[in-house]
Amino acid sequence: MVSLDQPEEKGLEEQLAQKQKRQKQALFLLSVVLLITLAAAGTYTFYQYLDGTLFQERCSHFVEISEQGTRVIESEVNQYRRFSEAAENILAREDIKEREDISDCLEEIQASLELEQSVLVAFDSSARLYTSDGVNSHWRDSAILSNGKKSQEIVTSLDYRGDDESYLLFIKQLDTPLDAGEGVITHVGVAVDIVIFQENFDEDIFDGESHVYVINQNGRRLYRHLCAGGFIDDYNLLSALEKYPFIHGGTLEDLREKTAKRSKAGYEFHYGEEPYFVAVSPVRGTDWTVLTFVPTKVLAAGTTAFINTAVVYVSAIAALVVLMLALLTFFFIAKRGDQLIIERQKEANRLLKEAADAANAASTAKSNFLSHMSHDIRTPINGIMGMTDIALKNMDNPDKILDCLRKIEGSSGHLLSLINDVLDMSRIESGKTKISREPMDIRQVISHCAAIVGGQIQGRDVELVEEFEEMSHPYVLGDELHLRQVLINILGNAVKFTLDGGKIYFRAGEICAEENIVRYYLEIEDTGIGMKPEFLPRIFEPFAQEDDGTRSTYKGTGLGMAITKQFIDLMGGTIRVESRLNEGSRFRVELPAEIHWEHEESKEVEQHKVNMEGICILLAEDNELNMEIAQYILEDEGIETLPATNGQEALKMFADSEPGFFDGILMDVMMPVMDGLSATRAIRALKREDAETIPIIAMTANAYDEDRRRCLEAGMNAHIAKPIDGENLIQILAQYIRPN
Fold first, then answer.
1. Do the Cβ atoms of 57 and 277 come closer than 8 Å?
2. Could you tell me which of 562, 444, 554, 566 has the C-alpha nearest to residue 499?
3. For residues 392 and 387, what is the distance between their CA atoms, to the nearest angstrom?
């Protein structure tokens, strides 16, 4: 029998322990490698899924926007079709004795139709061309006149002009040929420079990197939207795309098929080393198709950060799960607890699935929001366009036109509120919203909001009950604008969801005052339709709406209460809500504010109509439509206006005028050549007696607080946000300009 002494036995035990340790370490490392491989594969699969989902979302969004450009083309085509039909109707009633009179007749018709940037043309049975600018020559494309089509549009050049430009020619065959002395007029049409499309496209869309083509069914290029940077110059776009591989959405053959079937679609392909999106959008009423190209990096500017963040989060979760599973695996291998390892692995898989489900839910919520916004924005736009069309067809019916205008005004206000909600939410999430500290009388704020709601319920059987307590400290430093928005949001919901026969209670009072801080409560209660208990925890979430089935009745973005909650949080307050379905809701807001001890008692100013006749205003505005609106409002009050289309022109007009000639300046901010802020600084720096004193008032679509501050810092006296309120504009002018 062999025996081991104590040192040898101890050495063998140490060797056995080291061997077991190495085995455990090997098993642990093998488990870690396996788990890391699985996590990497899962993360990659999730990334691929997310990339495909975001492609579909970006593609849908891109196709929607490109369709807006297509609608511009459709609008232009329909407009000039109507002009050609009108020219046909007028020409059919003319009595033309001599061939030489045809051009004069066309010129008169063109003047009556106010076709300033177009040429009116006519063709006789011998394919001779007559134009409103006095041309009489042979038309080379005579086959177009004999193809039997009643109306048609072609892209061609007008040879007699010799300018190498392309023109869009709308031709209408006369129902009854017109005898014109030596010839018989068979066709009439309108020729317009194809640059009309260029003028109507938004140059800033997609950061100015979009390329737009109009092609026929064979792929032949009819028009190309000129923009910075080179792109496809081939004559046939469908043939040119054969050189570039498609990577998402389908193949070139799919694109050809969509073009032939007049369907919209979107694809992604490689143009050289850079990926591009292309949207296919048919022009209704023609055989044309619009192809819009834009670099993928432009469309992915927002979603790239989103997908990267999502992948980082999923990777981090996967890494934590791997570490956790590795530790558990090592522990249970050592303890030989196989069943517990399996259970832990199942739990880890559940966590991974929950993470993936959360990411999918976020993507779905965003997609649903885009879908809802598309519906909600299109609804008032459809009302505006529809009522405009009805008004144009009833020009001899003043009552019908007035009804259409009122409905257009309502749809425009609804559209503006939707856009404002989205912009407010975007600014809040980006951290750009700041709370100001300016003197205000909270009683006036409450009273003003009550007056607005009173106007909203006029004509309805809804009662507004005001229960306002006396306040010991009404003068405070706070943000009046955002406080008004909070109250109007809540009161507006109460009006929207309270049926006729109901009541709205508006209560306000002072809770307490300690040192320099006073705390108020503001409470709005209604007897409306109320909310379900399960919806209340989600009421302040962005895009949250209780029931999609009520969207057609109670329209909105689902952002109003989220914006309200964010504003209240920024002001340091709290909001609570109680509601019962079919019984009503109650919102209670509590807000702190700093007491303004050095206040001055506000004096009530009697409102009266201001006589502004004889005032002369320099109006700087680059947009023709906005210029026309402002001139109408001012001239309706007897105010003389002198227009300037950019800041440099406004500066020159003021500098060249006699001191005191202008009583004030209305200045747009975003203008070409020189913007309004630069023009204001230059005017204030002029060496003349009225340069520092003349009132300069900003009239701009830049409507936020920082925009107002920049205007005042540049030397302006006041700020008016677009859309322009005529009464507000006149009242502000009256504050700074003394009527003659």
1. no
2. 554
3. 9
Contact, 332 vs 338, CB < 8 A? yes
Of the candidates 120, 109, 92, the residue with the CA atom closest to the CA atom of residue 184: 92
Q: Which of 550, 685, 676, 662 is nearest to 616 (CA)?
A: 662
Q: State which amino acid sits at residue 582.
A: N
Alpha helices in 638-704 (DSSP H): 647-656, 676-684
d(CA 173, CA 145): 8
Q: What type of residue sits at position 75?
A: S
- Amino acid 410 reads G
Among 157-171, 179-193, 686-700, the minimum mean pLDDT is found in 157-171
pLDDT tens digit sequence for 265-307: 999 999 988 899 999 999 888 888 999 988 888 876 555 555 5
Residue 75: partners with Cβ closer than 8 Å, 6 or more residues away: none
Helix (H) or strand (E) holding 85: helix 6-92
Q: Encode pLDDT of 165-189 as tens digits.
A: 788 888 988 888 888 777 789 899 9
Q: Within 13 Å, how many C-alpha atoms sit on residue 475's CB side? A: 8
> In the predicted model, what is the mean pLDDT of residues 148-155?
85
Which of 648, 647, 714 lies closest to 681 in space, CA to CA?
714
The 8-class DSSP code of residue 220 comes to B
Distance CA 352, CA 358 (A): 10
Half-sphere exposure in the Cβ direction for 7 (13 Å, CA): 0
**Whose CA is closest to 462, among 505, 506, 501?**
501
Rounded Cα distance between 225 and 268, Å, is 20
Q: Say which residues have a Cβ less than 8 Å from residue 676's Cβ, sequence separation at least 6.
A: 620, 647, 667, 668, 669, 670, 698, 700, 711, 714
Instruction: Return the number of other C-beta atoms located less than 10 Å from residue 542's C-beta.
Output: 17
Angle at 508 between CA 503 and CA 514, to 5 degrees: 160
**Residue 400 corresponds to which tokens in the numbers above?**
């019908």
Q: 323-362 burial by CB neighbour count: b if 16+ within 10 A, else e? A: eebbebbbebbeeeeeeebeebeeebeeebeebbeebeee
For residue 474, pLDDT beyond 70 = yes
Q: What is the DSSP letter of 142?
A: G
Amino acid making up residue 598? E
Provide CB contacts within 8 A for 335, sequence distance 6+: none
Q: What is the CA radius of gyration of the chain?
A: 35
Q: What phi and psi values does residue 63 have, to the nearest 5 degrees?
A: -60, -40
Q: Quote the tokens at residue 271.
A: 């143009």
Q: Among 59, 82, 63, which residue's Cα sits nearest to residue 289?
A: 63
Query: In angstroms, how far is CA 647 from the centroid of its own chain?
Result: 26
Mapping DSSP to helix (H, G, I), strand (E, B) and coil, where does residue 724 land?
A: coil
- From residue 237, give the alpha-carbon distance in Å to each of 214, 293, 521: 9, 12, 65
533: its two tokens: 């208990």
Q: Over range 15-25, report the average pLDDT.
A: 67
Return the axis-axis angle of helices 6-92 and 338-392, rounded to nearest 10°: 10
Q: Evaluate if pTM is beyond 0.70.
A: no
What is each CA distance from 727 to 602, 633, 639, 738, in whole angstroms? 22, 9, 14, 17
9, 82, 179 from 93: Cα distances, Å: 126, 17, 11
Phi, psi angles (nearest 5°) of residue 222: -100, -30
Distance, CA of 7 to CA of 475 (rounded, Å): 92
Asked if 212 contacts 225 with a C-beta cutoff of 8 angstroms, the reply is yes
**How far apart (Å, rounded) are the C-alpha atoms in residues 149 and 140?**
18
Among 325-334, 548-557, 562-571, 730-739, the least confident range: 548-557
> Quick one: pLDDT band at residue 459, thresholds 50, 70, 90?
confident
